């Protein structure tokens, strides 16, 4: 009888540790996924000064557009929460649309190898940003499911793990990847 009780207690402890560790792993995965979004947004932000300077060389009188891109980039690099990063990301996407629309009016610019290279890098980066957002939301879904379902919900408080917010773009127009085709 003693062995049965001890065996049941050992199994219960193993189960509790496994659930605790699962929650911790999911929480770390969500943190890592958000960090990847920030890495890709930083990569995009780093491309923007080069893109602006290239376009400026051809369209110097479009100062308002350049200022909007620079301001949006500054906001995007200082955002920290998921909601702030998503809002800044949307604003920067809109500003880039304006910059790319300006570029559309300059055939010499569209033919520039430097501009074409930057355009390709921006397109690749946008794809990576999109993938990173999706991966983040997938990991958040897994974590939130674990936090809200039995039996792991009993261990969420002990593990100090809460449900996380999804990466959502507030403005429907911001959900579209900027068109960088020329």
Automatic annotation (TrEMBL):
Keywords: Membrane, Transmembrane, Transmembrane helix. Belongs to the LemA family. It comes from Candidatus Planktophila dulcis. InterPro entries: LemA-like_dom_sf, MamQ_LemA. SUPFAM superfamilies: LemA-like. The lineage of its organism: Bacteria, Bacillati, Actinomycetota, Actinomycetes, Candidatus Nanopelagicales. PANTHER family: MEMBRANE PROTEIN, PROTEIN LEMA. This is LemA protein. It is a single-pass membrane protein. It comes from the Bacteria. The keyword Protease does not apply. It is found in: Membrane. GO terms for cellular component: membrane.
């Amino acid at each position: 009888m003693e062995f049965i009780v001890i065996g049941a207690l050992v199994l219960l402890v193993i189960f509790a540790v496994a659930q605790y560790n699962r929650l911790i792993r999911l929480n770390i995965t969500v943190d890592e996924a958000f960090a990847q979004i920030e890495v890709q947004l930083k990569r995009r932000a780093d491309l923007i000064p080069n893109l602006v300077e290239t376009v400026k060389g051809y369209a110097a009188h479009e100062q308002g557009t350049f200022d909007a891109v620079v301001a949006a980039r500054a906001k995007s690099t200082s955002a920290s929460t998921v909601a702030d990063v998503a809002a800044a990301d949307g604003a920067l996407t809109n500003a880039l649309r304006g910059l790319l629309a300006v570029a559309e009016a300059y055939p010499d610019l569209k033919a520039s190898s430097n501009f074409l290279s930057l355009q390709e890098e921006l397109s690749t980066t946008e794809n990576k940003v999109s993938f990173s957002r999706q991966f983040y939301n997938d990991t958040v879904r897994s974590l939130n499911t674990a936090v809200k379902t039995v039996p792991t919900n009993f261990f969420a408080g002990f593990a100090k793990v809460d449900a996380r917010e999804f990466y959502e773009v507030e403005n429907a127009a911001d959900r579209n990847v900027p068109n960088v085709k020329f």
